[in-house]
Amino acid sequence: MRAPGGESPILGPLFVRPNRSYPTHSGKEALSVSARTVPGYLPQDVPSPGALVSLGFQHVLTMFPATVLVAILTKFDIGVTLFASGLATVVALLGSGMRIPLYYGSSFSYIAAVVGVVGAEWGGTQVAQVGIVATAAVSIIAGLLIRLVGKEALDKVLPPIVTGSVAVVIGIALAKAALDMAAGDWLISLITLVATILFSVYLRGLGLLGMLPVLLGAVVGYLVSLGLGKVDFAPVHQASWLRWPAFSLPAFSSPGAWKAVLAIAPIAVATIPESTAHLYQISLYVDRLAEEMGRPPLKISRLIGLNLILDGIGDAINRLLGGCAGTNYGENNSLMAITRNYSAPVLICAGVIAMALGFVGKLAAVIQTLPTPVTGGLAIYLFGVIGLQGVALIQSEKVDLFDPRQLAIGAVIMVIGIGGAAFPGGNIPLGSLQLPSIATAAVVGILLNAIFLIFPVREAARKPARATASE
């Protein structure tokens, strides 16, 4: 059975030409009146070369701290992690026909399991890679199943109260990390934060400058740090111009390979709600921008199956090269929501820059000189926007928060996710297990929703509660 245009309804459209279903603009190309008066880029819009590079670098600046931190914590090679992250992003964007504007970076959800495997007597980095290859298989299989049964079936398992609450948890759970980074120098952090907010509010609609608030805020914070003598250039002097990343292959023949699979692969199931929430968030904001521009809605959320397949392919790329387990980044989603720049070509440019950082040591070292308080100031804004995007998702889907079932699901997800993040490493201790707080919250929410689906409440039993709440 073939879909219109000759694509497989399950496998297509992987690695196809972009679907130009609406006008795109490039450089000085003429735009419609509505497009000229509404700032922003939709996924297949192509900015001018200068804007392309500037906006791409802003994405790299946004993803860089978290991606490098995960590599350090899991003892994976930083150069390989950056290169694999960029390559996975480029492959995913091309694989979706440039319709899914997401950046694929290293995931925090896998840290505890990967660190455990790397540090075990039977383990090591290459053994952990085997487990992460298995996560690729899990995501790809999940994506194929969703493309087979349809988005409607997924929405029953992952309703907006689950995906929206998970998005809120992701943002709020990162709040402590943002403040920890900012606490190194509150003056620098606050100046960076205030500058970024002012740029995002008052430069909006002023061409390219209006789309670079995070980059401009980082520049202000960097200059202040320079003036206060807080920038350490030692890493730049020590770094070589060119370096060859320490690529490595998974140790499939290791006796501990199956242990690594059992330890790491199940986390992929728990991260599906996170990936779904990110896609639904972007879909909501892209359709809003398209409406303002007078263009038809793109409804990216319908591509959730393809998105999970591309998640899996990204994991496979990372694992086969020796990079960290990945996911699409909420931080970059926040950046796109703030700047209204959803251009896939910009994200491809960011991916290419990330790949270059894997080989050009001094370039990566220059970015590493960005003081932690500057990153903290940016993170306060970006992480907060992630949480608010979850609220927007719940609001846009008109979730009935007078329904005790919806309240129960949302409440449990938020308390487990946010409360669990307070434990060391964001892992909830359960006997000898360390459960990632966000993934655990998502799984519990899914199970609670499943119970309500299997044992539905009679509508008549709900009416008194709703009536009482509205009085």
Description:
This protein has 471 residues and is mainly α. Helices cover 66% and strands 3% of the residues. The strands form two sheets. The chain has a two-stranded antiparallel ribbon with strand order 1-2. The chain has a two-stranded antiparallel sheet with strand order 3-4. A hairpin with a 2-residue loop joins β3 (427-430) and β4 (433-436). α5 (125-149) crosses α13 and α8 (175-182) runs antiparallel to α18. It is globular, with a radius of gyration of 22 Å. It starts with 32 loop residues before the first helix and ends with a helix.
What keywords describe this structure?
disordered C terminus; globular; 471 residues; 66% helix; mainly alpha; two-stranded antiparallel sheet
Order of neighbouring strands in the sheet with most strands: 1-2
Runs in which pLDDT lies below 50 for 5 or more consecutive residues are 1-12, 15-36, 465-471
| Class by alpha and beta content | mainly alpha
Helix content: 55-70%
CA distance, first residue to last residue: 54 Å
Shape: globular
Strand elements, count: 4
What percentage of amino acids are in beta strands?
Answer: under 5%
Treating each run of at least 4 consecutive H or I residues as one helix, how many helices? 21
